[in-house]
Amino acid sequence: MKLLLTLSAVLLASLLQAQVPDVQHYDFQLQLSDQHDSIRGVATIRFQYTDTFSSVRFNLAGLQRGKGMRVNEVRAKDKRIAFSHQQNDLFIDMRGLDRQQPEQEVVIQYAGIPADGLIISRNKYGSRTFFADNWPNRAHHWLPCNDRPDDKASVRFSVTAPAHYQVIANGLQVEETNAGKGLKQTVWQEPTPIPTKVMVIGVAEMAVGLLDSAAGVPVSAWVYPQDREKGFKDFALTKGMLDYFHQYIGPYPFKKLANVQSRTRFGGMENASAIFYEENTPTGKGTHEDRMAHEVAHQWFGDMVSEKSFAHLWISEGFATYCTNLYWEYKYGKAAFEDRLRAERQQVVDFVAHNKTSVVNTTSDLQSLLNANSYEKGGWFLHMLRRKLGDAVFRQVLQAFYKNYAGANADTRDFQKLAEEISRQNLQPFFDQWLYHPGVPRLNITWAHSRGKVQLQLQQTGETIYHFPLELAFVDAKGKQTLHRIQVNKVKERYELPSREKPTVILLDPNVNLLFEGTIRE
Ligand SMILES: [Zn+2]
């Protein structure tokens, strides 16, 4: 524990009764060096504050085994104020300030070697790089902030670094100045409120190319010089994605789209208007087109509309997964779209075989949420919602969800409420069974043919009894398919469907409309 001013135990206890701020704006001035991995920062934070508590609490990783941040000074209105930095929390004493003001501003001076969050390392070509990698709540390893997805703020990064680096961050570049002594100051500004998980800088020697424009904004690539050709070629694909989502969902929210080759631990990270891709993404062959589409879709869902808490992560990942499929259907057609759905269904089936959690999941192990529930099952849920509502109403729901929650946060029930209002359907049972229960329907179906009819015997063998429409195709000797649709509501049910001839085979869910596992046999 470190205190700048002497505090009595009683005062300290009252300090720790802190309010979590509602941040409006972050201004980060950062200094980076080639000589060492220590960074120096000045964070100016503007936030809403109500009078009830004597202090506010920000997140900032403290010193541990030589790494972490040390706070040197906190000021407000040019006055030094008391603070207490304990582990990952920075408590700032607000008692000396005019707390009648609804908005407050503090200036925090700090320095240290980031233990995480800002990854200072060497890329695959051995060059020194600095890449932020904040998801889910690792921003506080290098930035004092309210490190949670539901406190969105605008951000300005002013980075002073050795002049041989290019510097990328969220928003628009508003300044680049030679700062002397071989240093350069680069300033980026993002006026749209975004969560800390997608507030980043990337500093490396990069080839920077303006590739195209889409949705009225420039599309650029920031890649290692060695991968210039491959990167410029592959990242040009994001133009088509931006155009597609812009017309399908709603206006693109940011002022640019930069595609950045980086050292992220993820395949791609949807940092707002500056997507960071894992460094092997550019191949020159468009190998990772779906990864790019996923991250571009996140600009709408994840960055602009964000989950209220990570329990509703599927609002980021399920939406990005399904939007990728929508783009695939648009670009490559129905068969390619169905191939993706089948593969994703198999991923869900494999996952739920050993995992008994639901899509909406309040676990505190946030890394464990990067699973087939959040991604593929969330995506499949949207696919089934689309089939339930029809293409036009589904699109209306998606557009309204984006419009209503742009710049804000939503949870699963917010989405449900909106979908119910627009579709005028009660969707409670539908949302509950797919998002609040583990698993998928497990079906065991047998059939027989007699007297011009097919008799089906259906059994649900899973723990949850689902309600859903199931399509079956009867295939005759000439290969002609006749489609039938039954409504399944019970553990065990019998159905009789007309069929003069005995089918040679019966196909389950031929149009890939249901998330399930199971078989049908004669
Ligand atoms: Zn994602």
- Give the helix tally: 10
Class based on secondary structure composition and strand pairing:
alpha+beta
The largest sheet has its strands arranged as 7-6-10-4-3-13-16-15
Beta-strand level of the residues, as a percent range? 35-45%
User: Which architecture of the domain at 309-435 would the CATH scheme give at its second level?
Assistant: Orthogonal Bundle
Q: What helical percentage do the residues reach?
A: 10-25%
List low-pLDDT spans. 1-6
Envelope shape:
elongated
Bound molecules: zinc ion
Walk me through what this model shows.
With 522 residues, the chain is an alpha+beta fold. Among the domains are: 309-435, Neutral Protease, domain 2 (Orthogonal Bundle), CATH 1.10.390.10; 442-521, Sandwich (Immunoglobulin-like), CATH 2.60.40.1840. It has ten helices and 31 strands. The strands form seven sheets. The chain has an eight-stranded mixed β-sheet, with no helix packed on it. Helix 6 (334-352) packs across helix 7. It is elongated and about 90 Å long. Zinc ion is lined by residues 270, 294, 298, 317, 320.
Question: Mind sketching the topology for me?
Answer:
Blueprint lengths: L1 E2 L5 H7 L2 E2 L2 E10 L7 E10 L6 E5 L8 E9 L2 E2 L2 E4 L2 E5 L9 E11 L4 E5 L5 E5 L20 E10 L3 E4 L2 E9 L2 E12 L6 E4 L2 E8 L2 E7 L4 H8 L2 H11 L8 E6 L5 E2 L4 E5 L10 H10 L6 E3 L6 H19 L1 H19 L20 H17 L1 H15 L2 E3 L1 H12 L4 H8 L6 E9 L2 E8 L7 E8 L5 E8 L3 E7 L6 E4 L8 E5 L1
Zinc ion binds next to helix 4 and helix 5.
